[in-house]
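Posting this for the archive.
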Amino acid sequence: MSRKIGMLICLICLCSKISSTSIVIVGINGSEEIVEVDDNESILMLSQTIPIIKTIHGLEDLRNLKHLIITFSDMSKADDSVWESMKQIEVLQLKFITLKDFHFLTYLPNLVAFSLQEGIEVHNSSPINLTKNTKIEYFEIHGLRITFFPSFLGYPNSLKTISFYGTEIEQLVKDDIFKGYHNGQTLILNDKDIYNIGYVDGVRLGTKDMLLDIWEKYDIE
């Protein structure tokens, strides 16, 4: 009897260790890819899965997941349910991603740091609304080429740093910076952009040297 109990305990322990959740990524053409993720995982990368993503099932079941990285996908046609399933996410990295706009950020109340790196395209250049991201501290758009300086519809007092380093802004106007960023945030720009615009009253301008510490703090790759 004691031997059977011992085997049962071992089996329970083994099952608890290998407990996982199936993440199902669905494309607009109905194709699916399934990724098995350990329930205790806090960081997850979904890389080169479905080319054009329609929806993702299972992310909401990963209670310990805090840091999500998605790469090489078109998410411009993704359902709102995709973003709604990420409510627990604190750090979101998107790399080589196509987006419709930044409206999805309103579904991420626990977001602390957001990074869009080497984005392929953002279809809609409407103002970015961070008013519902009451915990956000860092916002980054890195490696894009855009026509106008990005504007914000609103942002919380928690936002400390905004970075557009590595992003080519064709029409960088000093007044646009003053209108959007005069609440004590640090704004990180390309060195040449800082040189061109000079001093902006009420805005702390930062350079690339600050990024390494920020990326390390939020574990941004």
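The helical segments are 2-17, 80-84, 174-180, 191-197, 208-217. Confidence is low (pLDDT under 50) at residues 1-16.
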